[in-house]
TrEMBL record:
InterPro entries: Band7/mec-2_domain, Band_7, Band_7/SPFH_dom_sf, HflK
Protein name as catalogued: Protein HflK
GO BP term (any one): proteolysis
Organism: Cohnella yongneupensis
Superkingdom of origin: Bacteria
PANTHER family: MODULATOR OF FTSH PROTEASE HFLK (PTHR43327:SF2), STOMATIN-LIKE PROTEIN 2, MITOCHONDRIAL (PTHR43327)
Transmembrane segments: 21-43
Any single Pfam family the record assigns to this protein: Band_7
Alphabetical list of CDD domains matching this protein: SPFH_HflK
Keyword Transmembrane carried by entry: yes
Length: 349
């Protein structure tokens, strides 16, 4: 073997000289890197719509909510995040990808209680209520929920007649399906909460049967609309008629009481006058005559003239009244002439 002379020291060609302390530095750097990785992996962030389950040596120990948290590095602890604060949706009878809707007849078609075929599309809204049950009690939670929803819908529709299912029974069917789903989740401890169930369509399969049932449904809706309008008109007119009738009765009763009171007052007045008349008939008769004249001749003017002559006299009374001076002199002359005319047997015209 060849030997290379490098001064006082000799080495073989396959030997590499390692500087003193290099291995120590490499080990220190590797250790620092591991420490940094462990520190970095000890902190984790949970988003607003999430909750996190902490697994210590593979066993569920606790859960955390939104924010920055600390855990022991892997493999001591591990974090599993689930969208527990998010309301999720599954569809029955169709699939939706964006704006594209694809029917799923295998899920949608089912038999009603009167042995007819109906197509039912539904949307089930749900949330994660218990992370531990959700992670450990069922293998595929969404598939379990889909199967449970399909089974519940078929169970309810299977006990409902077609005519009721496609017309007035939609709301009742939704409620029954929701109750069945809630019972199934509680029975198997799935950790899922049913928020709501809503049917998109409940109708016969597409074709002539569907068109016929649609016409029947439209006719029934039109019938219900007319009945509602008639009931509205009835509810509007009857109270008004009753009010008008009651008003007429009250007005008649008020008129009756008014006339009775007026008649009683007239009777009382007549009795009072008669009592005074019995005491002094002449005075009472004169007073009644004067009061009557005051009522029927409140603004009457009396002109007295002499009619003893055979000559027809013309008095321009209107012209005399228009002139204040003539009126005053005419009144004075009438007053002066009154005693003599009365004495001579004059009459008033």
């Amino acid at each position: 073997m060849d030997v290379i002379d490098i001064g006082r020291k000799t080495r073989r060609p396959d030997q590499i000289e390692i500087p003193p302390g290099l291995i120590k530095k490499i080990l220190l750097g590797f250790g620092a890197l591991i420490v940094l990785l462990l520190i970095y992996s000890s902190f984790y962030t949970v988003q607003e719509q999430e909750r996190a389950a902490i697994l210590t040596f593979g066993k569920y120990t606790e859960e955390t909510t939104a924010g920055l948290h600390f855990k022991w590095p892997y493999p001591v602890q591990r974090v599993v995040k689930v969208p527990a604060e998010l309301t999720q949706v599954i569809t029955i009878g169709y699939t939706q990808n964006g704006d594209v809707i694809t029917p799923n007849d295998e899920e949608a078609l089912m038999i009603t209680g009167d042995e007819n075929i109906v197509s039912a599309d539904a949307v089930v809204q749900w949330k994660i209520s218990n992370i531990r049950d959700y992670l450990y009690n069922i293998d595929n939670p969404e598939q379990f929920l889909r199967n449970a929803a399909s089974s519940s819908i078929r169970s309810v529709i299977g006990s409902t007649k077609l005519d009721y299912a496609i017309t007035d029974g939609k709301t009742e069917i939704q409620e029954k399906v929701r109750e069945l789903l809630i019972d199934l989740q509680a029975k198997y401890n799935t950790g899922m909460q049913i928020v709501g169930v809503k049917f998109q369509d409940i109708e016969p399969p597409v074709g002539q049967v569907s068109d016929a049932f649609r016409e029947v449904t439209n006719a029934r809706e039109e019938k219900n609309t007319k009945i509602n309008n008639a009931s509205k008109y009835e509810n509007d007119r009857i109270p008004k008629a009753r009010g008008e009738a009651q008003a007429l009765l009250e007005n008649a009763e008020a008129e009756k009481k008014s006339r009775i009171l007026n008649a009683q007052g007239d009777v009382a007045q007549f009795n009072a006058i008669y009592t005074e008349y019995v005491k002094s008939p002449g005075v009472t008769e004169s007073r009644l005559i004067i009061e009557t004249l005051e009522k029927i001749l409140p603004k009457a003017k009396i002109f007295i003239s002499d009619s003893s002559s055979d000559t027809v006299k013309y008095l321009p009374i209107n012209e005399l009244l228009r002139s204040n001076g003539s009126t005053a002199s005419g009144n004075a002359a009438a007053n002066n002439a009154a005693p003599s005319d009365a004495a001579q047997g004059g009459t008033a015209k």
